[in-house]
Design a protein that fits this description.
Number of domains: 1
Number of strands: 17
Mean pLDDT: 87
Structural class: mainly beta
Helix content: 10-25%
Largest sheet: 16 strands, antiparallel, barrel
CATH architecture: Beta Barrel
CATH class: Mainly Beta
CATH superfamily: Carbohydrate-selective porin OprB
Strand content: over 45%
Number of helices: 5
Strand order of the largest sheet: 1-2-3-4-5-6-7-8-9-10-12-13-14-15-16-17
CATH topology: Porin
Low-confidence stretches: 1-37
Length: 439
C-alpha cells in the first residue's frame, strides 16, 4: 500500500504542476491539445440512428458539441447447457441482464481548459447464469460477472466501475487517475475486450486470464499515456490489486500492481494489423482473494480453510495480435491471437492461448453484422492446492454471429463447446443468444 499511495501522490503532484502550467501559459495552448472528436450525429429514423432514443430533439447533439456524452446500454443474455457439464448442479438455463451508464466530459469542447477528459461509468446486473451447470473454469458469459464482485455470482450487483480524469499535457503525453476501469485494456479489434458486447461471450477470447490475479475490473490508481506516433501508443500505470467495482475502494485495499501496455499498428501486404504487449507485476495480493475471483471459476471447488494464505508477488505477461486479410475494422475479416503467461503461483492460470478468425460486414447490405470463431486453451498452475483438486488443462471453442438489427440494436447467436479443467465431467455444449440495445 505504501507504493500505491506514493504513486497516487506523485500523480497528483504532476497534475498540479500541469494545472499551474496551463494557467501560466507555459504549457501548449489549446491549438496544441489533442484535437476534439467530431460532433456526433444522433438523428435519423428508427432504422438508421445510432441510439435507440435518437437525438432528443437535437439536445443530444448540442450536449456532444459542448463536450458532454451520455451512453446507456442494456444487454440481455440467455444461455442453456445443451449437454455435458455437471448434471444436477445449478440451472441449465441461465439468463442475465447487464446495464451500463457512462458519462464523459471533454473540457476542450466545454471551453473550460484544453486537454481534459472526465469519465464516469455505472454498471448493474441481475439474473442467474448457467456457470455451475457448465462447470468450466473460463466464464462462458462475461456479462454475468460484470461488474466483478467476488462472492456475489448470481446475485443482483450494482457498482461504480469508473471515475477518472485524464489531462493531456501535449498531443504526445497525458496523465490520468481515479477509479480506473481496466476492461478496455488488452483490446483486440477482431476478438474484442471485456467491455465489448459485439463479439465473443467466453472471457478467454476477450482477455488473457493470466491477468486476473492482479488486474481487477475497477480499482484506484493512475498513470501516464504516451502517443509516440499515430501507430505506437503506450501507457504505464499503478493501481490497487483489490477488486473495487462494488465496494469502497478507499476503505478496502490489498496489494499493488504495476503495469505497462503498448500497442503497435502496422500493415502487412498493405492490409492493416496490430500487436499489443502488456506486463503486470503485483505485490501484497492475498491468494484467497485470487482464488475467489469468478473470472477464474474455481472458487466453489475450494473450502476457504484449505486455501494457503500468502502475499507472494505475482507477475503476468500478455500479448495479442490481429491481421486483416481483407478490408479493415469498418468492414473486413482476418485472424487474431491471444497469449499469456504468468508465474503460476499464486496465479491459478499458468498460461493461456486463444486464436481464431472474425470480422465485420460479411455480406453486402449487412455492414453492421459481426462474426467470429475460435478456440482457447488454459494451462492450470501446478501448485499443491490445484493439484489436490486434480484440475487439468481446459480446451474450448466458440462461434458467434452478431446480427445488426439497427445500429442501436444487435442480436448475437452463440455456440460453445468446452472440455473443462475440472475432473470427471463431460464436454459441455452451451447454446446462447444475446440482445444488446444502446439507448
Amino acid at each position: 500500500m505504501k507504493q500505491f499511495f506514493a504513486g497516487l501522490l506523485a500523480l497528483g503532484f504532476i497534475m498540479a504542476l500541469a494545472a499551474d502550467a496551463w494557467a501560466e501559459g507555459e504549457a501548449p495552448d489549446a491549438s496544441e491539445a489533442p484535437p476534439p472528436a467530431p460532433a456526433l450525429a444522433f438523428g435519423g429514423d428508427f432504422w438508421t440512428r445510432p441510439k435507440l432514443t435518437g437525438d432528443w430533439g437535437g439536445q443530444r447533439d448540442q450536449f456532444a458539441a459542448q463536450g458532454l456524452t451520455i451512453n446507456f446500454d442494456v444487454t440481455y443474455t440467455f444461455q442453456g447447457v445443451a449437454s455435458g457439464g455437471i448434471p444436477n448442479t445449478g440451472t441449465a438455463l441461465g439468463n442475465t441482464t447487464l446495464g451500463a451508464l457512462s458519462l464523459g466530459l471533454d473540457t476542450t469542447k466545454a471551453n473550460l481548459w484544453p486537454g481534459g477528459l472526465f469519465s464516469l461509468r455505472l454498471e448493474a446486473r441481475t439474473g442467474e447464469s448457467a456457470f455451475g451447470r457448465a462447470g468450466t473454469v473460463s466464464p462462458i458469459d462475461n456479462d454475468a460477472i460484470t461488474p466483478n464482485s467476488p462472492g456475489n455470482l448470481n446475485k443482483n450487483v450494482f457498482g461504480l466501475t469508473e471515475l477518472t480524469y485524464t489531462q493531456f499535457l501535449s498531443p504526445q503525453f497525458g496523465v490520468f487517475g481515479g477509479l480506473l476501469n481496466t476492461y478496455e485494456g488488452d483490446d483486440n479489434p477482431i476478438a474484442g475486450n471485456p467491455r465489448s458486447n459485439m463479439s465473443f461471450l467466453n472471457l478467454s477470447f476477450l482477455m488473457s486470464l493470466v491477468e486476473a490475479a492482479t488486474v481487477p475490473n475497477a480499482s484506484l490508481g493512475g498513470g501516464g499515456v504516451f502517443i509516440l506516433s499515430p501507430d505506437i501508443i503506450g501507457k504505464v500505470l499503478i493501481f490497487n490489486s483489490q477488486e473495487s467495482a462494488t465496494i469502497n475502494p478507499i476503505e478496502n485495499s490489498s496489494g499493488t500492481t504495476f503495469g505497462t501496455e503498448w500497442t503497435v499498428k502496422h500493415k502487412l501486404f498493405d492490409q492493416p494489423g496490430g500487436q499489443l504487449l502488456g506486463f503486470m507485476y503485483g505485490i501484497g495480493q492475498n491468494r484467497t482473494a485470487i482464488n475467489a475471483d469468478p473470472r477464474v471459476f474455481i472458487a466453489n471447488l475450494i473450502v476457504n480453510s484449505a486455501i494457503p494464505k500468502t502475499s507472494a508477488d505475482s507477475w503476468s505477461f500478455y500479448y495479442n495480435a490481429h491481421q486483416y486479410i481483407q478490408g479493415d475494422e469498418q468492414r473486413g475479416w482476418g485472424p487474431f491471437l491471444r497469449f499469456g503467461v504468468s508465474d503460476g503461483n499464486p496465479n491459478p492460470i499458468k498460461w493461456n492461448l486463444a486464436a481464431g478468425i472474425g470480422g465485420k460486414g460479411p455480406f453486402s447490405g449487412r455492414e453492421d453484422d459481426r462474426w467470429g470463431a475460435g478456440f482457447y486453451y488454459l494451462g492450470i498452475s501446478d501448485t499443491a492446492l490445484l493439484n489436490l483438486l486434480k484440475l487439468n488443462s481446459e480446451v474450448g471453442g466458440e462461434m458467434f454471429y452478431n446480427l445488426g438489427i439497427t445500429p442501436a440494436m444487435h442480436l448475437t447467436f452463440d455456440a460453445q463447446a468446452v472440455s473443462s479443467a475440472r475432473p470427471r465431467q463431460q464436454t459441455a455444449v452451451i447454446l446462447g443468444a444475446r440482445v444488446g440495445v444502446n439507448f
